[in-house]
Amino acid sequence: MTTFLPTTDGPGGTPAPRAVLLDMDGTLVDTENLWWDAEVAVFAGLGHALADHHRAVVSGGPMGRVGRHLIEATGAAITLEELGPLINAAFLTRLGDGFELMPGARRLLDELAGQGVPTALVSASDRAVVDVVSTVLGRESFTLTVAGNDLRRNKPHPDPYLAAARGLGVAPEECVAVEDTLTGVAAAEAAGCQVVVVPSVVPIPPAHRRSVVASLTEVDLRYLRGLWPTARAGEPAGPL
């Protein structure tokens, strides 16, 4: 299902991708259920039951979009400014009970770090949440982190991925982004990144410059470099 991007190795023969940009919730850590549980609990406290079909709409979304949708859908008597902290607090409480990494995530992070590949964590979640999760994953796993409230515009706008590439000193077109939701895919593709998708809540089809895998167990540095044809036919992209 891989779709190849017609490009070459990076400047000076640097193997592509020059950086890997990774989403957090549902991609590296199994937290999409925790977010939904937190949202359900908060709205239950407000006297409203969230229907399951709302989950596909809010999955992977930034707090502003999630909150606006759920308030409009339920008619809950709460403002967006009041709702966000409640959901974040409920989610952080659930994080404190522990969470699992997605299959293949630890191995991929260790391989990227071991090979010296610049890596950014790019999340729609707030900074407080990103800091907790990135600490558990290991701060050494990421060259930098970008949280949803670090910028004026969050996913599905390209700003988080553009900021990550800029912070790593590489062009977005030389990066591969790893995502699990349509919201994140839209952001990464709008930034110009090659995208690898590991769908979590809703199916996502392959497309130009987008490949789809069942889990991160299928993804390693050789796979990521294979998304770029070599600069010169018959020559390897670079050492693995």
How helix-rich are the residues, as a percent range? 25-40%
Task: Sketch the major β-sheet.
Answer: 6 strands, parallel
- How many strand segments? 6
Secondary structural class: alpha/beta
Give the strand order of the largest sheet, numbering strands 1, 2, ... along the chain.
Answer: 3-2-1-4-5-6
Count helical runs.
9
The span between the termini is 22 Å
**Helix-strand pattern, N to C?**
EHHHHHEHEHEHEEH
What is the oligomer described by this structure? Answer: single chain
What spatial form do the alpha-carbon principal axes imply? Answer: globular
Strand-residue proportion? 5-15%
Mean of residue pLDDT values: 87
Protein name: HAD family phosphatase
InterPro entries: HAD-like_sf (IPR036412), HAD-SF_hydro_IA (IPR006439), HAD_sf (IPR023214), PGP-like_dom2 (IPR023198)
Entry keywords:
9 helices; single chain; globular; HAD-like_sf; HAD family phosphatase; alpha/beta; PGP-like_dom2; HAD-SF_hydro_IA; 10% strand
Describe the protein in words.
With 240 residues, the protein is α/β, with parallel strands linked by helices. The protein contains 9 helices and 6 strands; from the N terminus they run βαααααβαβαβαββα. α1 packs across α4. The protein is globular and about 55 Å long. This is HAD family phosphatase.
